[in-house]
C-alpha cells in the first residue's frame, strides 16, 4: 500500500515537471503572433437545410399527388441531389439521423441537435400523410439511383421479398451499434456519400459504383434491399392518408404500369380465393403463426450467442483485449491505442469494468437483434400468406417510392390524387373520389 | 387504418417531444480534437474521408520556446541545424523556420505552419511534445464536412475527438487556455485583438 502511494507521488511529481515550459523569450523587437484558425461557418447551414427539407417534401408531395407530374418530380429530385448531395455533401441525412436518434434515446450524455431530430421526423410525418414522397424526390441517395434506373429487369418476387428483409436487419444492427455508441454503421457503409464528396473511402466508392451499375437494371437496389430508413418509411407509407394512385379513374388492367415500375412496387390484380385455395391458405397461415414463436426464439438464442463478436466492434473492447494480450505476453507488438493508454496512465480496472458492462449490454442487445430478425421474418411470412384480392393494378404502398413512372405510362386520362387504396379497398365507383 | 395512422402520428410526436426535451439547449456541433489527448499518431492524415485531410497543425506561439534545436522541426537524426529537407521532420516542409533574434548568445527561431502544405500527419506534434508541445492538431472548419460519423474519430487511438458547439468549433490546450485568459484579463484588449478574436472561436472547458 505504502509503495503504491510512493509510486503515485512520483508520478504526480514527474507529470508536473513536464508541464513546465521553456519560457517564451522576451523579444526586443518582435511581437509574439497569435494562432490563427479558419472561422467555422456556424450553424446557419443546418437551418437552411431544414427549411430546404420542408420545402422539398412539400413540393414532392404536391407533384406526386396533385399535379401528378413525373417531369416535376424528376426536376425536383435533380435539385435535391445537387443540394443535399453535392452541395451539402450528404451530412446529416434522414437515414443517418436514425442513429443519432437511437444514440440519444440510449445515451443520456449525448445531446442531439434539434435539426437532426427534424431531419428524422419530418419525412416520417409526410410519409404518414402522403406516402414515400421523400424517397421520390428529396432523398439524394434515392435520386442518384433514380437517374441510373434505365433498363428495367423484373426480378423474381421471392428474391425481392427475401432481399427486402435485409433492410430490416440492417436497421436493427444500426440501432444497436449506435445505441451503444460503437459505430454509425449507416454512415460508415453509405455507398454514395463518396460520390457526393467526389472522393472518399475506396471500398465504399467501389461498393457504390457496383450498386449504381446494378441499379441500371434492378431499380434502386439500395432503397429496396438496404436502406434502413426506407424500411421504417414503408410502414408509415402503408398507413398513409393519401398515396399516389396509378389510374386517375378506372383501371383498364392493361398492365403497362407494372412494366414501367423498376422497383417491383406494383401489385397485379388478385382474384378472390376459390374455396379450396382459401382453406389451404388458412391452414398455411395457421402453421406459420404456430411456427413464428419458434422462429423468434431460435434467432433470439443465436443473437444472444453473438455477444462476443458484436462487442468486438467496440473500440474500448478492442483496447481492453489488446491490453490483456500484452500483459499475458500474447501480443508481440503494442498498438497506438495501448501505448496511448499506458502513457496516459489510465486505470486498467476502470476500463475493464466498463468493458464488462458493455459486453453485457451487447448480450442483451444481441438477443434483441436476434428476436427482431425473427419477428421480421415471421411478419413477412404472415403477410405473404394473406391473400388480399383486388381487381386492378395498384401501387404497393409499402414499396412504392412515388417516383411517378406508372402514371406517366398509364393510358387512362388524368385526374387528381386519390386515397390510399390499401387502406379502404373502395368499390370501383369510389375510385374517382378525391381526397 | 385511421387508428394506426393516428397512433403513428402520436408516436412521432412523443418521440419528437422526448428528444426535444432531452435536447435542452444543445447546439449544432462540429468535430474537434482535444489537443491534450492527441498523441500525433498520424491517423488524422490518413483516415479523413477527404483526400487532403481536414486536420492541420497549428502553432500556439504563446507556448513556444522559439528554440534553435526544435524537436518539432528537426528530424531526430539531423545532420545539421539548417533548413535542408533531409533535416526536417515534416515530410512536406510545412513547418517554416524563421530567425527572430540573437539574445544573450542564444538564437531564437519562430516556427509557423504553412497550412496549405500541412497534411496533418502529426509528426511535428509528436516531436514538439518532447519539449513545450506548442504544436497541436485541429480539425479545420473551412475544410471539414462534418460527417455524422467522423472516420478519424473512430480510428483515433486516444479518443481525442469530441463534438463542440458549431459556433465555437476549436479547442486549445488547457495550458494555452489559461495563458490566453490571463492575457485577455490583464490587457483589457480591444475587440479586434487577435487573442480576443481567437478566443471567440474556441470552446472553453
Ligand atoms: S429508401 Fe432510403 S435511400 Fe431510398 S430514397 Fe428512401 S430514404 Fe432514400
Ligand atoms: S487520430 Fe487522434 S491521436 Fe492520432 S493524430 Fe488524430 S487526434 Fe491525434
Ligand atoms: S468529420 Fe469527416 S471531414 Fe471532418 S475530420 Fe472527420 S472524417 Fe474528416
From TrEMBL, chain A:
PANTHER family: FERREDOXIN-TYPE PROTEIN NAPH
4Fe-4S ferredoxin-type domain span: 242-271, 391-421
A GO molecular function held by the record: 4 iron, 4 sulfur cluster binding
InterPro entries attached to this UniProt entry: 4Fe4S_Fe-S-bd, 4Fe4S_Fe_S_CS, Electron_Trans/Redox
Domain of life of the organism encoding this protein: Bacteria
Name this protein carries in UniProt: 4Fe-4S ferredoxin iron-sulfur binding domain protein
Parts of the chain that traverse the membrane: 43-66, 73-97, 109-130, 165-186, 198-218, 285-306, 365-386
Signal peptide range in chain numbering: 1-19
Pfam families membership: Fer4_3 (PF12798), Fer4_5 (PF12801)
UniProt KW keywords: 4Fe-4S, Electron transport, Iron, Iron-sulfur, Membrane, Metal-binding, Signal, Transmembrane, Transmembrane helix, Transport
Organism phylogeny: Bacteria, Pseudomonadati, Planctomycetota, Planctomycetia, Pirellulales
Cellular compartments per GO CC: plasma membrane
Amino acid at each position: 500500500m505504502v509503495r503504491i502511494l510512493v509510486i503515485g507521488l512520483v508520478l504526480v511529481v514527474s507529470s508536473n515537471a513536464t508541464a513546465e515550459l521553456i519560457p517564451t523569450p522576451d523579444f526586443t523587437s518582435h511581437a509574439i503572433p497569435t494562432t490563427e484558425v479558419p472561422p467555422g461557418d456556424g450553424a446557419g447551414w443546418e437551418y437552411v437545410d431544414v427549411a430546404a427539407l420542408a420545402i422539398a417534401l412539400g413540393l414532392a408531395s404536391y407533384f406526386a399527388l396533385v399535379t401528378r407530374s413525373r417531369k416535376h418530380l424528376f426536376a425536383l429530385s435533380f435539385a435535391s441531389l445537387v443540394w443535399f448531395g453535392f452541395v451539402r455533401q450528404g451530412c446529416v441525412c434522414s437515414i443517418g439521423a436514425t442513429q443519432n436518434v437511437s444514440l440519444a434515446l440510449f445515451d443520456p450524455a449525448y445531446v442531439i441537435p434539434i435539426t437532426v431530430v427534424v431531419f428524422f421526423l419530418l419525412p416520417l410525418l409526410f410519409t404518414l400523410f402522403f406516402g414515400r414522397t421523400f424517397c421520390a424526390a428529396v432523398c439524394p441517395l434515392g435520386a442518384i439511383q433514380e437517374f441510373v434506373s434505365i433498363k428495367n429487369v423484373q426480378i423474381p418476387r421471392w428474391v425481392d421479398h427475401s432481399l427486402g428483409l435485409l433492410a430490416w436487419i440492417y436497421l436493427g444492427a444500426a440501432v444497436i451499434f449506435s445505441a451503444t455508441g460503437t459505430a454509425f454503421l449507416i454512415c460508415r457503409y453509405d455507398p454514395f456519400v463518396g460520390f457526393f464528396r467526389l472522393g472518399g473511402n475506396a471500398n465504399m466508392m467501389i461498393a457504390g459504383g457496383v450498386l449504381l451499375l446494378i441499379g441500371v437494371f434492378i431499380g434502386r437496389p439500395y432503397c429496396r434491399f438496404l436502406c434502413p430508413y426506407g424500411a421504417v418509411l414503408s410502414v408509415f407509407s402503408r398507413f398513409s392518408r393519401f398515396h399516389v394512385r396509378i389510374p386517375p379513374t378506372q383501371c383498364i388492367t392493361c398492365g403497362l404500369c407494372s412494366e414501367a415500375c423498376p422497383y417491383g412496387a406494383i401489385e397485379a390484380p388478385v382474384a378472390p380465393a376459390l374455396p379450396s385455395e382459401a382453406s389451404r391458405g388458412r391452414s398455411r397461415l395457421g402453421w406459420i403463426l404456430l411456427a413464428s414463436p419458434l422462429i423468434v426464439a431460435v434467432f433470439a438464442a443465436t443473437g444472444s450467442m453473438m455477444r462476443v463478436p458484436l462487442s468486438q466492434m467496440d473500440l474500448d473492447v478492442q483496447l481492453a483485449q489488446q491490453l490483456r494480450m500484452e500483459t499475458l505476453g500474447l501480443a508481440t507488438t503494442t498498438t497506438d491505442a495501448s501505448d496511448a493508454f499506458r502513457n496516459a496512465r489510465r486505470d486498467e480496472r476502470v476500463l475493464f469494468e466498463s468493458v464488462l458492462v458493455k459486453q453485457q449490454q451487447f448480450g442483451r442487445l444481441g438477443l434483441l437483434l436476434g428476436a427482431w430478425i425473427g419477428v421480421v421474418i415471421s411478419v413477412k411470412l404472415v403477410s405473404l400468406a394473406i391473400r388480399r384480392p383486388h381487381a386492378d393494378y395498384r401501387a404497393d404502398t409499402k414499396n412504392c417510392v412515388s417516383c411517378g413512372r406508372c402514371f406517366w405510362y398509364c393510358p387512362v386520362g388524368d385526374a387528381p390524387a386519390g386515397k390510399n387504396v390499401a387502406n379502404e379497398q373502395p368499390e370501383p365507383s369510389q375510385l374517382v373520389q378525391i381526397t | 387504418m385511421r387508428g394506426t395512422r393516428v397512433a403513428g402520428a402520436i408516436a412521432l410526436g412523443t418521440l419528437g417531444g422526448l428528444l426535444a426535451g432531452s435536447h435542452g439547449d444543445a447546439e449544432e456541433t462540429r468535430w474537434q480534437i482535444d489537443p491534450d489527448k492527441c498523441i500525433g499518431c498520424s491517423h488524422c492524415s490518413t483516415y479523413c474521408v477527404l483526400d487532403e485531410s481536414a486536420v492541420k497543425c497549428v502553432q500556439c506561439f504563446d507556448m513556444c520556446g522559439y528554440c534553435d534545436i526544435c524537436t518539432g522541426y528537426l528530424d531526430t537524426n539531423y545532420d545539421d541545424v539548417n533548413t535542408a529537407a533531409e533535416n526536417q521532420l515534416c515530410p512536406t516542409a510545412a513547418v517554416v523556420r524563421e530567425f527572430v533574434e540573437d539574445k544573450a548568445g542564444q538564437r531564437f527561431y519562430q516556427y509557423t505552419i504553412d497550412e496549405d502544405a500541412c497534411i496533418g500527419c502529426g509528426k511535428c506534434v509528436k516531436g514538439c511534445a518532447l519539449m513545450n508541445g506548442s504544436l497541436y492538431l485541429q480539425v479545420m472548419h473551412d475544410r471539414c464536412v462534418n460527417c455524422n460519423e467522423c472516420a478519424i474519430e473512430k480510428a483515433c487511438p486516444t479518443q481525442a475527438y469530441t463534438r463542440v458547439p458549431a459556433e465555437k468549433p476549436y479547442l486549445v490546450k488547457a495550458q494555452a487556455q489559461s495563458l490566453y485568459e490571463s492575457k485577455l484579463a490583464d490587457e483589457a484588449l480591444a475587440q479586434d485583438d487577435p487573442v480576443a478574436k481567437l478566443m471567440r472561436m474556441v470552446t472553453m472547458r
